[in-house]
Amino acid sequence: MAHGETTPVTKSAPSTSTGGAAQKSEESQNNWEQWSGTVFTNAKAGMAGVDKDKIKAVVYEMSKESPHFKNEERKQVQTVERIRKMQDRAKALSTSEIAGHTKAMDAKLAKLKAGMDLTRTWMHVDMDAFFAAVEELDEPSLKGKPMAVGGIGMICTANYAARKYGIRSAMPGFIGRRLCPELVFVKPNFQKYTRAAAATRAIFAQYDPDFEAGSLDEAYLDVTDYCRSHETTGEAVAAEIRRQVREGTGLTCSCGIGPNRLLAKVATDMRKPDGQYAIPGEHSAISRFVDPLPIRKVPGIGKVSEQVLSALGVEVCADLVAKRGLLAALFSPISADFFMEVGLGVGRTQHSAPVEDGAVGRKGISVERTFAALSSPADLESKCSELAEKLAEDVESEGLKGRTVTLKLKTTNFEVRTRAATLVRHISGYDDIFREALKLLRPELPITIRLMGIRLSGFLETNTEPGQRTLSAFLKPDAAPAAVTPPKRRNWNQTFMPREVRECIDQEMEKYQASHPSKEAEPLDNFQAAPPTPSQEQDEQLQLAEAANCNTVPKPVSDAAQRPSQCRVAHSQADARQSNGGASQHLELSLRDWAPPTASQVLAASQQQLDQEPVRADSRADLQSAESEHPGEVSRDVGTCQSDVDSCRDILDTAAPDEVAGPDLAHAWDEAPSGLGDAHDIPAPDGPGSGAPASASAPKHWTCQVCTYSSNHPRILRCDICDSVRGTRWDYYLGQGAEASSGSQHAVPARDSPTSREICRSQGGASAARGQRSILGFFSEAERKGAAASGVEQQSGGLAGASQLGPVERRSEDRGMESAVPAQPASCRDAADSSVEWERGVDGSWRCSQCGASVINEGRAEHEDYHLALLLQKAESGGMLAGKIRQAHDDKAAHKGASRDKKRKNDLAGHSRSSSSQALTSFLKKANIQQQS
DNA sequence: TAATTCAAT
DNA sequence: TCCCATTGAATTA
Ligand SMILES: Nc1ccn([C@H]2C[C@H](O)[C@@H](COP(=O)(O)OP(=O)(O)OP(=O)(O)O)O2)c(=O)n1
Ligand SMILES: [Mg+2]
Ligand SMILES: [Mg+2]
User: Fold this and answer.
1) What is the tens place of the pLDDT at every residue in A750-804?
2) How far apart are CA A762 and CA A741, in angstroms?
3) What is the pLDDT of residues A866-922, one digit of tens each?
4) For A700, which DSSP code?
5) Active-site residue (options: A135, A136, A218, A306)
6) 3 state SS for A900-914
7) Cα A894 versus chain centre, distance
8) What's the gap in Å between A269 CA and the centre of ligand 1?
9) CB-ligand 1 contact for A814 (6 Å cutoff)
10) Neighbour count for residue A705 (Cβ, 10 Å)
């Protein structure tokens, strides 16, 4: 979180409205007045009467000498250059060319307008100064005082008292302190925010059980049906929701109402603190709102796009339509289309599609850390290892396998480099990730960095879930029948079964039948010799079992105290040789401490690598680069014994010459448990990253951060209510919800082709029924009412490179937290049948036929009790499952997709236009002030 | 596919 | 004593 444009840069301000002179790179007078950046003076809520000039002066004075600032200047120069080129292109356009594009856009516009569905009532809800508001709730003495959530390095958000001083999200803390010396800093506690968010979501679900969360603090609700069935209006619903949120959580929020999501979202900011604003579903009203709207207010148009468009004479949304020919000529079709949509006020009118079974709910997963400058190979490798370990933890906790590894480096000059490799095989474990990251790091070696990150993407989509058989299991004749049982159908008619659950189960059945089409028909003789496969299937089981949680809050990746028993691997060459010949392949690639192995060692190691190590898909390219750019580096995929030797030698020769005799850091890992076997044990709730004492107190509860359900089952793998994986989304509590031992997040993703969305269904009431109480006392009311679906839908995108811009909605969560968990199939998890059957898993654990959870033998009785309790509770509350897993339609898809918005004739009006135009006026006033400065 | 840029939280 | 972390989309070569 806390990121924003800290526009530095001085010279050249591309701002004139006519396509004319956009840049004037005169010699800077070193004067902040020429500073064109938006510099924290964006028209965010609460920035009304701020002395923007003063803020700019302060920020400028404090940062002008910093490397960060220099880098920002460099970037600004680039965008200025980009603008210049674009203007040149614009000038070169013939009138006929533009006319042609204009005509094409006319057709586009006509089509868009004709396809607009104005019959829906969308609502966007966004909490006010969310993190800060939650902190104030927790510590009322903070109220009224300028306060910021975050640290001296970065502020997540600030309360409105602080905003008066110009303090806002994404501002570095030290600047905030300068602007307001009395500023109080509060360390972020995502647990609180997640809980607060869950409380609000429980309310949202009452108005739209399928609502989509846009982040922790905002959500999109389609209240069309609610309005209809309750004979009310969007505005009335907004007032009701705001009241409920206020009374139920003590927090305030703002609402935007409009015929589509885009308009609703933009409307939310109109009367930001504790207010609401409605845009009627009529063309005339939409135009009145959109036409004078500064383009910067549109989600997807950021600082750079604003500058670029401004240089073309586009300042407000109406300009997007007016200059349609020019825009179509200069930008990509995707961007141009987006502009046209915005110009007309067209947005999505439908919920995202449910996420599909077996699909991975995200595009990538990553970890990155900023630290004091590092340059020695030993330090770099160590850092890389820490990151790899953390990433592997996250990856495995979600059962992901990816084949593209990306290394990210940020030099002390703030220049960012990324290096990626796509492998043939999909990986997930620490060893593979570390090794591949190291390979990417090696060529960059003489380097001094302040940040390193690793990302894994290109996930395997054939996500085999507990309730599903793996191919290998299926092919194994004897193991097949015992290992997998089709979802049970019994009792369906006798017990309570929500419709959604029933549908999920039906899907599971279909899936099962689809994947086992002719099992009975197929003669056993046809089975290919099923490999004794201890491999894949088992690995997958283990990975799931290994679900460990992690701490997302700013915290060192490696903190021995926080990282219990799974520190496997000796991180030194010496240790490796002692322990296990070629078991730790990455060691051979170590950036330090290398000594020529014996011939037999090399042979064994290289042979093993040939067998096991994933190789890059583009092995030739790899070779090439090895020969040309990095003559010293030899591709490993075709590596001979000698090449391995050379490879290692080159590392030393070129990258870490002084480290040859350098300090032996091996001891740094000596204290880590060396028992590799432990690494694959199913961790107890006090497992890795949870922050809970590794061995000390006995675990009491796992609390799902998605729906707040708590379980005292020691080895639960998924939330029994909302089905989210017990990974980073779970928190561990020692007591009655009092001392949370780890901060983490939740969020369930969903993915789909162009865009992604995440969602997770959930059900409230569980933790209340179990006598749990939240830290903040939330859920008191909300939880009673049941419900609480959640999910997160993020949006972003933007125009990169030269043209582009494509809003597109994307999903994500507020900063650090998230790391979404793939929304799981849900199979028969909520079946309200208390009878549990057990299936023995390949790893010796037992799988519950009801929920699919893997449990150790001793935990079975307890687990059965749990299902009984769940059944009883469900009967009481008249249980419900809110929300379905959805997946996103990005704007493009929604656009081209034949499945355009379905039209409904009934128009639910109910809006006061007088008030809306009034609010618009003040809104624009603010915006203008900001623009003028 | 790789690398970079932009955007949002 | 000094500018985050995580994710996704789009462009370009
Ligand atoms: N760059 C950012 C922006 C936001 N956030 C976090 C802190 C915010 O409290 C929360 C919600 O973001 P909003 O943009 O909704 O901002 P606020 O809710 O804080 O303020 P507002 O009243 O303007 O909505 O996300 C963050 O960490 N970093
Ligand atoms: Mg907010
Ligand atoms: Mg928000």
Assistant:
1) 222 222 222 222 222 222 222 222 222 232 222 222 222 233 444 454 666 555 4
2) 23
3) 555 454 333 333 222 122 222 222 222 222 222 222 222 222 122 222 222 222 222
4) -
5) A218
6) CCCCCCCCCCCCCHH
7) 22
8) 12
9) yes
10) 29
Higher pLDDT, A354 or A645: A354
The answer to whether the complex's ipTM is over 0.90 is yes
Task: Kindly state if the Cβ of A44 falls inside 6 Å of ligand 1.
Answer: yes
Q: What is the pLDDT of residues A815-831, one digit of tens each?
A: 333 222 222 222 222 22
- Does the C-beta of A127 come closer than 6 Å to ligand 1? yes
Ligand 1 pocket, A156 CB below 6 A?
yes
A218 included as an active-site residue: yes
Phi and psi torsions of A424, nearest 5°: -75, -35
Measured to protein CB atoms, the chain C nucleotides within 7 Å are 1-12
**Ligand 2 (single-atom ion) residues, CB below 5 Å:** A 126-127, 130, 217
Q: Has this prediction a pTM greater than 0.90?
A: no
The answer to whether residues A202 and A788 touch, using CB atoms and an 8 Å cutoff, is: yes
DSSP 8-state symbol, A259: S
Phi-psi region of A561 (alpha: psi -120 to 50; beta: other; left: phi over 0): alpha
Say yes or no to pLDDT of A658 above 50: no
Tens of pLDDT along A234-244?
999 999 999 99
Nucleotide B5 C1' to residue A129 CA (A) = 29
On chain B, which bases lie within 7 A of the protein's CB atoms? 1-9
Distance A254 CA to ligand 2 centre (A): 8
Amino acid present at A310: S
> What stretches of A752-802 show up as alpha helix (H) in DSSP?
766-769
Among A757, A785, A784, A882, which residue's Cα sits nearest to residue A208?
A882
Rounded distance between C-alpha atoms, residue A540 and residue A533, angstroms: 12
Chain A residues 788 to 847 whose Cβ lies within 7 Å of strand C are 794, 796-806, 808, 810-812, 815-816, 818-820
Does residue A128 have its Cβ closer than 6 Å to ligand 1? yes
Average pLDDT taken over every residue of chain A: 61
